[in-house]
Task: structure prediction
Amino acid sequence: MVKLVAVLKAKPGQEAAVTQALRDLAVPSKAEPGCVMYVPCRSKADPAKLVVIEEWADQAAFDAHAASPHFQAFLAKVGNALAGEPELEFVEVL
Result:
């Protein structure tokens, strides 16, 4: 299994656009082969901070997701609305 937490920070005034784009991305991502969990979230303390909790069957499934047309379109759509690159934190269950 590949588990990760992706953190995105929207630029001021871009929070709604990034949030909607992330909601739109969740639908095809959840339908991908190998997707076990894909949960977009927003920080209660900072509405510009968006977090996606993901779990993939294996590295190949994650790599396919990262290369998918819908994920690449998402990155292109929100690229100028983000305050920096998304941060990926790969995690493991204790």
